[in-house]
């Protein structure tokens, strides 16, 4: 374990946030299965109340499937303006305890309370106070995890949901992690989980039996990260005011469209993405095109030009050019692949004075 004094990190996760706001603001919805989504074959679930989750309804699920799973569900169209306002109120509560707040989304954040503004005796007490304030001031509930680092705090916040608190003390870290499935570790998805299972590694304790060298040999740089996580080590700090890393806009069509019909939609989304990118002084290097086929396969293509796009029109042109790098996989004589969603993004942001963004003064000159 690290030799420095352990940090005191809290991860706060609002419970079924969008759905809970709707139930709070409309008493008729309380106790009922609420699905925050537009109705229709193209819609996906933004959030589901715990009453709906009992039926298997989950976020990002197609709305039509949610309706099949829970015919009694009440569908409520999302109101992101209202959710953002509530999120700001939650963040004000966080900031009354520490300036080191790292929002991850509207409904969750990391807080470093190694030192706290209220001079409370422990991080556990800070977490309890925050949850009480959210309940009393906003009539909502939140779950919290307290731990010596970020990845453990996030695991802990999910341990006693909803409306729960779980604490992982430094002395308990190794024992807590040992029986956990490796899938609970950051970065271990389905593919990595299968690769680890092939080595007989199903739990963190089993992973711990492999040396750093063995893991690096098999998994490269991520192998070292795996070894550290197995020991409960995570040196990532809570970053207040995280610099912009990416911005994007996407849209799901009313009807599936072929690749040849996407240009007007890409231009419209490029305008939204460009406007969002103007809110930061940092400069994006990479243009990203995202597509989702009618059978829900996701394709992404990216371009890092010598010079970043200098206008909305340039961004749109670059994004449209990426369509040429999407292979149409339909068989000869079969109809073309149809797409249900397109997205345009900017990524790989750097500071404006980064030398990588400066034009080559000698470009185009020959000896």
Automatic annotation (TrEMBL):
One of its GO terms (cellular component) is cytosol. Keywords: Cytoplasm, DNA damage, DNA repair, DNA replication, DNA-binding, DNA-directed DNA polymerase, Magnesium, Metal-binding, Mutator protein, Nucleotidyltransferase, Transferase. Pfam families: IMS, IMS_C, IMS_HHH_1. It is found in: Cytoplasm. The keyword DNA-binding applies. The record marks 18 as: Substrate discrimination. CDD domains: PolY_Pol_IV_kappa. The keyword Glycoprotein does not apply. Binds 2 magnesium ions per subunit. Its cofactor is Mg(2+). GO terms for molecular function: damaged DNA binding; DNA-directed DNA polymerase activity; magnesium ion binding. GO terms for biological process: DNA repair; DNA-templated DNA replication; error-prone translesion synthesis; SOS response. Its EC number is 2.7.7.7. It catalyses: DNA(n) + a 2'-deoxyribonucleoside 5'-triphosphate = DNA(n+1) + diphosphate. The active site is at 108. Mg(2+) binds at residues 13, 107. Gene3D superfamilies: 3.30.70.270, 3.40.1170.60, 5' to 3' exonuclease, C-terminal subdomain, DNA polymerase, Y-family, little finger domain. NCBIfam families: PRK02406.1. Monomer. Poorly processive, error-prone DNA polymerase involved in untargeted mutagenesis. Copies undamaged DNA at stalled replication forks, which arise in vivo from mismatched or misaligned primer ends. These misaligned primers can be extended by PolIV. Exhibits no 3'-5' exonuclease (proofreading) activity. May be involved in translesional synthesis, in conjunction with the beta clamp from PolIII. Belongs to the DNA polymerase type-Y family. This is DNA polymerase IV.
